[in-house]
Amino acid sequence: MMYQLRRGSRKTSERWRERDAGRRVTRWLAMPGAIFAGVAALLIVNSLPALVTVIASGLGWDDRALGLLASADVAGITLGSLAGVPIVRRARLRTVVIGAALALALADVGCASSDAKALIISFRLAGGLASGLILAACYAIYSDTHPQRNYAIFSIGQMAAGFVAVTALPLLTGRYGWRSGFLVFALFSALAIPLALPLPARAFAKEAPTHRASAEGGSQAAVWLAVAGVIVFVTGEGAVWTFIERMGAASGISAHDVNTAVSACTLAGLLGAAVMMFPSDRLGVALPLLASTLLSTAAVAAMRSGIPAVYIASLCAFNFAWLAFGTVQFAIIARADSAGTATVAMSAAAFGGFTIGPYVAGELAVRYGFFAVQCLGLGGILFALVSLIPLIGRRTTSLQPAATRPA
Length: 407
What we know:
Layout: H1 2-41, H2 43-46, H3 48-59, H4 63-87, H5 93-112, H6 117-142, H7 147-176, H8 179-195, H9 213-216, H10 220-242, H11 244-250, H12 255-275, H13 286-301, H14 308-336, H15 341-368, H16 370-392
Helix pairs in contact: 1-6, 1-7, 1-8, 3-4, 3-7, 4-6, 4-15, 5-6, 5-8, 6-15, 7-12, 7-14, 10-14, 10-15, 10-16, 11-12, 12-14, 13-14, 13-16, 15-16
């Protein structure tokens, strides 16, 4: 009898090991699909500077209509991310991503098949809603394990894809017409569907190991304060980003140097995310946050310099610090969020801030000049840093991977 019990125990252990190995493989295969889906969700937003130019030349839209098109997309992402907070906790993550990716592809096709202004804007709003749902699910997956590394790869992917899209879109549409751009976007969105098949076939439910529950299950009020810091941070960064070219021109920087600075700062942003890709217990999180805050402060302060080299360097430092700070910020909140709701809501917080920032910056620039815009940018990152202090003070700031619920 004892022999049979031991034999049965060994078989059970073997089955558990096989199941755990299968789950690790599933999680490993799921992450590239989640990264691609997140990049596809933001491809149009990241290529908006080129897209609005293409629409203006192809359909003759004025600036007001182009602004409404961009606002509809960003507002849709914000609303979709908010709707995604309860959805990803009830529906399977794989189903959410596949369904939303299909809706996004159909919205892109709808834009390509219509000439009516109201229809194109409506399709972009629908596409934004689908993108928001994708991001809510992807943020949940990114936080499952290695949140800092996953978010850094996602940031690198979306910036690289946006850079390629901004470069290639004018060439493509110049040869095949403005509709070809939306058809390529639809194809890119459709590719996310087969890549999403390895995603978790379960709803999102964050589980902390029992031996870490007391450390990670602290006050959710502190976590939500940090999420508010995301809104304020992106509001300030988005405000400055919107007017970086105008500030350069107003300071006497030539159009050539301004374009060079914008291209260079994109590469600097990629570097900022790459540097933060792998967390270090030796550095911790306080030092990278403080260093990126100081770098951003110096960059924003020097942004209105009339010296081209200083202007280019300030833009590069600004974008580097933005991506570096944002990557660590996401990881800290994801680790401290015991319920998981705040982690999913970070997408809505970021795009809510990006919706507010350009509008507030425009009002400040008209009334008080670009100095007020710079102050808004500085205030945003300082508030975000302060909002993270309660989480940094806990023992949850070890960003090395911890045991999580298997996929």
